[in-house]
Amino acid sequence: MQKLTASYGDVTGWENYNKFRIPIHIAVWGLYYFTYAYIYALFYESVSLPKALAQFGVTIWIDISAAYLLIYLLIPKLLLTKKYTRFLILFFTTAIAFMLLQRIMMMMVTYRYIYPEYAEKYNFFKFNYLYTFFNIYVMPAIFASVKLFEYWFINQKQNQELMNEKLESELKFLKSQIHPHFLFNTLNNLYALTLDKSDKAPEVVVKLSDLLSYMLYECNVPRVSLEKELQLLKDYLDLEKIRYQSELKIYFDVQGRVNGKMIAPLLLIPFVENGFKHGLSKQINKPWINILVQIEDYSLTFSVENNKPKVNKTDETGYTEGIGLKNVRRRLDLIYGTQYELKVNNEDGLFSISLRLKLDNGRRGEMGDGRG
After folding, report:
1. How far apart are CA 310 and CA 279, in angstroms?
2. C-alpha dihedral over 295, 297, 300, 301, to 10 degrees?
3. Which of 2, 156, 235, 283 is least buried, going by the fewest C-beta atoms within 10 A?
4. What's the CA gap between 277 and 313, in Å, rounded?
5. How far apart are CA 123 and CA 108, in angstroms?
6. The domain that contains 170 carries what CATH number?
7. Is residue 1 in some structural domain?
8. Distance (Å, whole) CA 24 – CA 31
9. Are 173 and 312 found together in one domain?
10. What is the CA radius of gyration of the chain?
11. Is residue 74 part of a domain?
């Protein structure tokens, strides 16, 4: 178990306990004191409750000292830092010391003033060592169990927070990789139009501005509406239509109810972008792309199919083919866990993907890890 550095107040659920820590401890020790004395007096008919209370009042400070030495020094400083040998040596050394202290108090106070009739019958070194050990360490053992559970709980909480931070950082990194790739392709389109002095260039600038606004200001949340995500695809396809003009055949169809559905942002566009980057942009005859979106309840099926050259050529830009799909697959793993299915089919002259995943509803909206 690793050493914990966070205070209890840093973990939700322990704040109220910290506020009442001292009263709680006093109440627990008080309950232990009266219960133990009552049981002792009940078990021995010759011992009255006042005598039992006086008897345990003489030695209870030893139990208290043993408990707090164990949970505030030996466990955090030695056991949790894996200094096991030193922990065992100090534990048994202090246990012997507490046993001797208890015996001293019993011989000098308990038998002398509370039970003087038994004073001459008892010898200092003649007593049950095992019974005395357990007599002292009943409460320290209970306290240690509670303390170890606290350490385990805090450790689990911290590990979960670190894991969440790591996953969030990785998601942000993967999503940030989409932006440069997407912008690079779109700016290339705009550059080609400006070289041709096309009247379409201003329209491209306007649509590019809308796309940038969406990516910069509306995608910094765990979920966006499916309607907005599909509008992003339409705007992107409009840009590609301008670039290809009448050469490109696009089929884009949405089936089912879109309203009220939520999806991770920028999750669908890499599949469409991949079709243009590694298929349609390779100067093939009669380029086409088919995109089908099917929504049934909260289940989404997203299919993209496009033609491509039968023999793949080296990408002159140096772009590694498939990196966009690797990124989006990793995002799917992190966000949706087992709640998605992705099939990729790369044939000679044809490329297709089929994605099925479970959508969130508009009321939840916030990110869940989808692993449930």
Report:
1. 10
2. -60
3. 283
4. 12
5. 12
6. 3.30.565.10
7. no
8. 10
9. yes
10. 36
11. yes
Domain hosting residue 67, numbered range:
8-127
Read off the pLDDT of residues 295-309 as tens digits, 9 standing for 90 and up: 998 899 999 998 887
At residue 315, the pLDDT reads: 45
Q: Which alpha helices (DSSP H) does the chain contain, by range?
A: 15-19, 21-43, 49-69, 84-105, 129-195, 201-217, 226-244, 269-278, 323-336
> Are 94 and 122 in contact, with CB atoms under 8 Å apart?
no
Q: How far apart are CA 203 and CA 211, in angstroms?
A: 12
User: Which residue did the predictor score with more confidence, 179 or 88?
Assistant: 88
Percentage with pLDDT > 90 across the chain: 19
Verify that 107 and 196 share a domain, yes or no.
no
C-alpha separations of 15 from 10, 282, 285 in Å = 8, 62, 68
The two structure tokens encoding residue 330: 């990793």
Phi/psi region, residue 13 (left: phi>0; alpha: psi -120 to 50; beta: rest), is: left
pLDDT, mean of residues 127-132: 80
> Which class for 138: exposed (0-12), middle (13-18), buried (19 or more C-beta within 10 A)?
middle
Which residue has better confidence, 95 or 337? 95
284 and 195 within one domain: yes
